[in-house]
């Protein structure tokens, strides 16, 4: 299957690659690096995640699953970015994800800056978004832009009701964002909540979401900078890698219809965060694969 909006990349995620037609999960790299306001370099992230993924065991001990034995996985490659035109690039992202969904497959998207989530979610008809992030990303405008990494969830709410957004791990926002979230009734659990009472939060999420389709958007800065230093805007006070992996094992039991991992900035990473990103993805794939038993 060829997509004119995509440049093929080999080897793909994990170094394995099933034909698109036979795949259940389809990887898509989106090296978008247009609206960065602090530490740029998102454009190198998909390549680094793929590189790390080929150097990690595909057997996930916690699940007792070899990911590539349980799931047929293909990697389309990277969206062709038009650096001077965010709208045009976004249209490409939405078209490709719509095709993946239409073909009955789960899109696994590797950013790239968090702005990509808006364009990915435009491809979904009806979904609950679980957003893992240090920041709320609910500004209406930032540095003159209404659509950027700092406003992405506000723009998502232009197309989804507020009760379809759940934020996990948040610990930094502006006063305006806090007021908007409170007035809108957005559900949120801070990093401190996740550390102190993870089981209670998971139980609440399962009651809220039930059987509805879920999209996971994972900004790597949900982790404390000690565990993920190579992100655009590090925020102290985050959860650990172990805590995130435990959380994802439970979230992966929900009706996951797609996910993204975003905000890796390789020029500011020693390689640690790339491997964390790959491990996060394997954990999610293992949860999805466990359902195939």
From TrEMBL:
Binds 2 manganese ions per subunit. Mn(2+) binds at residues 114, 133, 135, 137, 219, 221. Its cofactor is Mn(2+). One of its GO terms (biological process) is putrescine biosynthetic process from arginine, via agmatine. Gene3D superfamilies: Ureohydrolase domain (3.40.800.10). GO terms for molecular function: agmatinase activity; metal ion binding. Pfam families: Arginase. The keyword Manganese applies. InterPro entries: Agmatinase-rel, Ureohydrolase, Ureohydrolase_dom_sf, Ureohydrolase_Mn_BS. The keyword Manganese applies. Keywords: Hydrolase, Manganese, Metal-binding. It comes from the Archaea. Belongs to the arginase family. Agmatinase subfamily. This is Agmatinase.
